[in-house]
Amino acid sequence: MNLKLDVGSRLELNGSVDFKVLPKTGLAAVACASTLIAHDMRPEGPIR
User: Which residue, among 13, 2, 15, 17, has the nearest Cα to 38 in the 3D structure?
Assistant: First the structure.
């Protein structure tokens, strides 16, 4: 698995996954965790 999480101006998750090694449910768990991290890192203020 090779992923890059960019939380600059928007949430962007790029990368590649070998589904023979990591099932799709595992990728979904990583995406959910990344969303929580990005939400925690965002600056305070109104949601756009």
Answer: 13
Phi and psi based region of residue 15 (left: phi greater than 0; alpha: psi -120 to 50; beta: remaining): left
β-pair partners for 2: 16
Indicate the pTM of the whole model: 0.60
| Residue pair 15/30 in contact by the 8 Å Cβ criterion | no
Query: CA 21 to CA 9: how far, in whole Å?
Result: 32
| CA nearest to 37, candidates 46, 4, 18, 23 | 4
Give the pLDDT confidence of 3-22 residue by residue, as tens digits. 777 766 666 777 888 888 88
If one counts every other C-beta atom within 10 angstroms of the C-beta of residue 9, the result is: 7
